[in-house]
Amino acid sequence: MTRQIITVATTGAFPTKEHNPNIPLTPKEIAADVHECWQAGAGIAHLHMRDAEGRGTMDKDRFAETVALIRERCDIVLNLTTSGDLNATDETRMAHLIALEPELASYDCGSMNWMHTTLFINHPSFLEALGRTMGAHGVRPEIEVFDAGMFYNAQHYMKKGVIPSPGYFQFVLGAAGGIAATVENLVFLKGLLPADAKWSAFGIGAAHLPILYATIALGGNVRVGMEDNVFYAKGRLAKSNAEFVERAARLIREAGNAVATPAEVREILDLRR
């Protein structure tokens, strides 16, 4: 039976309580939310931090507090962002990885126009330093791909030995400035992968469900959560991130597959220290 991983992206850097009052923002809120999602079937939690004003931050102390609170509750695999603040320095984007050595962290494999308003910069020198820092601290890169060029960037860094091959890819569809969230584009991106690569995908906003359905059908892993979409259905705000996880788990089982536990996630993604 195919085991499919559910990643929950609880918070992100941009949605606020004004978008959805149920989004978790503080370390205590995020930890409680992650625990509920673990109970519902999430095997990975992708974490962003917010400062006291609710803005995205790469403050390593916020990460440390949140990780400690989660570890008191459950064994979910933790995936820490490296891009939670567009104004962060290269050093602050890596400091929490050095301090906490999570099992996974995001590796955004290229630069792009962001939301048609600003730039999301991942300079080649930063990507090389990030990959080598991850390797030195036992952190597996989750290679985030916002368009096809980022896949080929990843291939370059694999050939150089900066990040491991064949890789674990997260296809991000529907970000303004990146590839559109269509099933055709998802199939195209999947077709680029080496046969032994692991992959996951999600669609942003209204594209969430079509990409969720298609990813499950194609045998991939899925990501859900309020970082990407604050609505559970058209016109109805999500009550919790666990609600998204419960739906994903139900769909995976109805497709005849199994929801991967954290222990199985570690085996599937080879997260051995």
TrEMBL record:
Cofactors, names only: Zn(2+)
InterPro entries named among the record's database cross-references: Aldolase_TIM, BKACE
Pfam families attached to this UniProt entry: BKACE (PF05853)
Keyword vocabulary terms for this entry: Metal-binding, Transferase, Zinc
Annotated Gene3D superfamilies: Aldolase class I (3.20.20.70)
Origin superkingdom: Bacteria
PANTHER family recorded: 3-KETO-5-AMINOHEXANOATE CLEAVAGE ENZYME, 3-KETO-5-AMINOHEXANOATE CLEAVAGE ENZYME-RELATED
Name of the protein this chain belongs to: 3-keto-5-aminohexanoate cleavage protein
